[in-house]
Specification:
- By secondary structure, the protein is an alpha/beta fold.
- Helices cover 42% and strands 16% of the residues.
- A six-stranded parallel sheet has the order 1-2-3-4-5-8. Strands 6-7 form a two-stranded antiparallel sheet.
- Helix 2 runs parallel beside helix 3 (85-105).
- It is globular.
Length: 240
């Protein structure tokens, strides 16, 4: 007896159904979030591509606000070898600042989260994300453990490694910590692909130990290719 709500673009014809879905989610103790498309170019100045990416973030905010959800998560874009990195970073700050102003001007309740990325040619190192969230009020950092592990060439091995990362990020968060986890393959500080959790050297057990010690208010999203299986696998480990 399940109902499938299909939302073509634009979503105007089905927008009115979102509040009912949000109400059902709360009854079932499900916290809702949205991730924008994985390819983003907020650092560009193309009037079509860049502004389309900005609209993707705005539309995600409108949808999640109607769902009464928690956080919209996004990355910000790649470096272009034909442009100075300083110019791209300046564009990112200007464009994301404009989105935040629009967000606040429309009274959207969900948080806007900036995700740590997994490749060197993509804006989103830990330092870059924290600096952005510090400089622009209204942003919150999102820890993607797989991305961070790849970008730092495999540094998340022991519970203390996870504790240090969480303690670095927590002061910049304006609410519960939002994170993502999966197994990962990487090479020379760059993510190659996500894998099931049981593959690779990024293990969930050390993170579970860190969470048991710290007891943070934290959401972990499974981004594994074995999506539901690994979500339950993480939950079993955490409960044990």
């Amino acid at each position: 007896d399940d109902d499938l709500l299909y939302m073509p673009s634009p979503v105007a014809n089905t927008f009115g159904s979102l509040s009912g879905i949000g109400h059902m989610a709360k009854r079932m103790d499900v916290k809702l979030s949205i991730h924008t498309p994985y390819y983003m170019d907020i650092g560009g100045d193309d009037e079509v591509l860049t502004y389309s990416c900005m609209d993707n973030i705005r539309h995600a905010g409108l949808i999640l606000d109607a769902l009464d959800g928690d956080i919209v998560v996004t990355s910000l874009g790649i470096y272009d070898e034909n442009k100075p990195s300083e110019e791209i970073e300046e564009n990112i700050y200007q464009n994301i600042g404009a989105i935040v102003d629009w967000w606040k001007g429309n009274g959207l309740k969900p948080r806007l989260g900036i995700e740590i990325t997994g490749q060197q040619d993509v804006f989103g190192s830990l330092e870059q994300v924290l600096n952005l969230c510090s400089d622009i009020d209204g942003l919150t950092p999102v820890i993607n453990f797989s991305h961070y592990h790849s970008r730092t060439n495999g540094t998340l091995l022991d519970p203390d490694d996870f504790i240090d990362l969480i303690e670095n990020v927590a002061p910049y968060c304006d609410g519960p910590l939002h994170t993502a986890f999966a197994g990962v393959e990487y090479y020379e500080n760059n993510e190659k692909r996500l894998t099931p959790i049981k593959k690779g050297d990024l293990k969930f057990e050390p993170l579970a130990e860190a969470l048991m010690e710290m007891r943070p208010d934290c959401t972990i999203i499974s981004t594994s290719p074995l999506l539901e299986h690994d979500a339950m696998y993480m939950r079993i480990i955490q409960e044990r």
